[in-house]
């Protein structure tokens, strides 16, 4: 069966004129009036291309029509129409006009044309709807025809503006635009872990026949399944994401946006889109039909869609989507806290796992002490399951809590940075014996530029009203080491981590008048034009040191 366009144009114009004139001269039956109205609609429709996927844009509540003509054939000839909604459900139908098609196939000349058309109008119009559908699934209509016929496709979106794709073919012997699905197109979940889900599906016949141009792509999200690849693309775009032309052909990083992350490993491509509703992952894995999805969140429901994609035509077919819920994360190991004992906890910033400490009170009053050593840490404390404190800590922090004997306290620590963090923790019932010494208003070290010489510098720092021990250390550093030293230093490390040669002096001092609780030292024996890193350690009654903020000072080059 062939489609004829050139023979159709002229008769349609003549037929339209005749229909309009006839409607003015004499009353007509309702069927004839409907026939002429439909022909008028055809005239203002678009021709649907044969053998090519057409994108159709629909405006809300405004129908759009396409048509095609099939010529008479001695045998039944097949044709197929596939419609793919890319967003909201739509309504679409196929109408056929068999009476009009016979007149369109005739050769006409001059006045004889009008006579033939007038005769054809007297015959009853055979207008019928042969198919209609409402929804957002991919639907294919397969028809057979041996008569000359004019077909009209009408599409309508009642929810909002949207777009669809339409594929018509009258040649069913030259292969398929869309990859074929297996008889059983379901996706099977064969394994579920805390952070992984393993899927398998039956091979597409297209993969077995055209392995080099067909591949599978998997879509993972936390919202719902998608019935087509263009529906998935539309959903991600509506979230504010710009995508490559298709998910399947996102194999080149040239169109990646800042919200996208591309990961290529073991010949598998993963693209992660950061959208408001969570991550949407696209994974193209070639022709493998079993895949383990990694790096999922525990106790989370995910939806999985597999598309078999023809890389040459960019057409795809969707397997029946599935979903699975990852297992709950196992309870973290809990470390028991003991009265007065100090422990240091290192937290993994990349995995974002919390560290748990448990303490059973032997007194009604308890005090938790925290010293941040590195990074940023969030502390969450519960008493018998109820939150009593929760905040990000910096420097040193005390939490004094009251309760009952045998109350159970749970301390959860988590790094708020991607890099590792560490913190020292102590719990004690003795409020009068704090873990850390009494601290001054500021832990900054000040240097005096006017007092610098080629071989000495003068530094000063604040003290307290409590007599305490202060030790000064120095170390020579290079220009390119300054930033690293200041950023990566462990604020909990004490003098025991320093070389003996770095020690300058130790001294005791205090002043009941805080305005005068300041001490200064001149460090001599330095090299000219050289950078030095100075540290001051404060020791309290518990013996645990607190380090002041490091200070970098450069001696004068010339004196």
TrEMBL record:
General function of this protein: Secretory protein that plays a role in various cellular processes. Acts as a chemorepellent acting on gonadotropin-releasing hormone (GnRH) expressing neurons regulating their migration to the hypothalamus. Also promotes neuron migration, growth and survival as well as neurite outgrowth and is involved in the development of the olfactory system. May also act through the regulation of growth factors activity and downstream signaling. Also regulates extracellular matrix assembly and cell adhesiveness.
GO molecular function: heparin binding
SUPFAM superfamilies: Fibronectin type III
Signal peptide: 1-21
Secreted is among the record's keywords: yes
Keyword terms: Glycoprotein, Neurogenesis, Repeat, Secreted, Signal
Superkingdom classification of source: Eukaryota
Domain Fibronectin type-III: 179-316, 437-545
Gene: Ndnf_0
Subcellular location field: Secreted
Protein name (record): Protein NDNF
Entries under InterPro entries matching the protein: FN3_dom (IPR003961), FN3_sf (IPR036116), Ig-like_fold (IPR013783), NDNF (IPR019326), NDNF_C (IPR045805), NDNF_Fn(III)_1 (IPR055271), NDNF_N (IPR056225)
One Gene Ontology CC term in the entry: extracellular region
Species: Tachuris rubrigastra
GO biological process: nervous system development
């Amino acid at each position: 069966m062939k489609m004829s366009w050139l023979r159709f144009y002229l008769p349609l114009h003549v037929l339209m004129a005749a229909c309009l004139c006839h409607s003015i001269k004499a009353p007509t039956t309702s069927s004839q009036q409907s026939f002429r109205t439909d022909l008028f609609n055809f005239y203002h429709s678009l021709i649907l291309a044969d053998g090519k996927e057409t994108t159709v844009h629909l405006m809300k509540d405004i129908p759009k029509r396409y048509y095609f003509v099939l010529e008479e054939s001695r045998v039944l000839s097949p044709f197929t129409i596939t419609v793919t909604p890319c967003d909201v459900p739509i309504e679409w139908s196929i109408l056929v006009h068999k009476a009009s098609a016979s007149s369109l196939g005739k050769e006409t000349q001059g006045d004889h044309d009008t006579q033939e058309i007038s005769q054809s109008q007297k015959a009853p119009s055979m207008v019928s709807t042969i198919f209609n559908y409402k929804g957002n699934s991919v639907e294919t209509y397969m028809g057979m025809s041996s008569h000359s016929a004019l077909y009209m496709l009408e599409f309508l979106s009642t929810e909002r503006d949207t777009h669809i794709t339409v594929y018509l073919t009258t040649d069913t012997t030259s292969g398929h635009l869309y990859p074929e699905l297996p008889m059983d197109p379901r996706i099977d979940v064969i394994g579920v872990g805390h952070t992984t889900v393993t899927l398998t599906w039956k091979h597409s016949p297209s993969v077995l026949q055209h392995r080099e141009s067909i591949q599978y792509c998997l879509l993972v999200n936390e919202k719902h399944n998608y019935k087509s690849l263009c529906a998935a693309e539309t959903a991600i775009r509506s979230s504010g994401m710009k995508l490559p032309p298709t998910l399947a052909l996102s194999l080149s990083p040239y169109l990646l946006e800042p919200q996208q992350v591309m990961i290529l490993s073991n010949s598998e491509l993963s693209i992660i889109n950061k959208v408001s509703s969570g991550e949407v992952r696209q994974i193209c894995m070639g022709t493998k039909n079993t895949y383990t999805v990694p790096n999922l969140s525990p106790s989370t429901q995910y939806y999985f869609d597999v598309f078999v994609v023809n890389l040459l035509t960019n057409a795809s077919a969707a397997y029946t989507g599935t979903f699975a819920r990852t297992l709950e994360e196992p309870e973290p190991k809990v470390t028991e806290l003991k009265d007065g004992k100090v422990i240091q906890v290192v937290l993994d910033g990349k995995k974002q796992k919390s560290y748990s400490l448990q303490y059973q009170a032997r007194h009604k009053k308890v005090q938790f002490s925290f010293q941040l050593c590195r990074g940023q840490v969030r502390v969450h404390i519960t008493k018998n399951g109820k939150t009593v404190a929760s905040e990000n800590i910096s420097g040193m922090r005390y939490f004094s809590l009251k309760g009952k004997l045998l109350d159970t306290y749970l301390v959860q620590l988590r790094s708020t940075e991607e890099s590792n963090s560490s913190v020292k923790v102590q719990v004690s019932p003795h409020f009068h014996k704090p873990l850390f010494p009494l601290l001054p208003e500021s832990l900054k070290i000040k240097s005096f530029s006017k007092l610098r010489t080629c071989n000495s510098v003068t530094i000063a720092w604040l003290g307290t009203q409590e007599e305490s021990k202060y030790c000064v250390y120095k170390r020579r550093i290079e220009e390119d080491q300054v930033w690293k030293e200041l950023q990566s230093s462990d604020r909990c490390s004490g003098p025991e981590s320093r070389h003996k040669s770095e020690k300058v002096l130790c001294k005791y001092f205090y002043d009941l008048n805080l305005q005068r609780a300041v001490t200064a030292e001149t460090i001599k024996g330095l090299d000219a034009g050289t950078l030095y890193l100075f540290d001051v350690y404060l020791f309290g009654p518990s013996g645990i040191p607190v380090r002041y903020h490091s200070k970098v000072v450069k001696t004068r080059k010339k004196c």
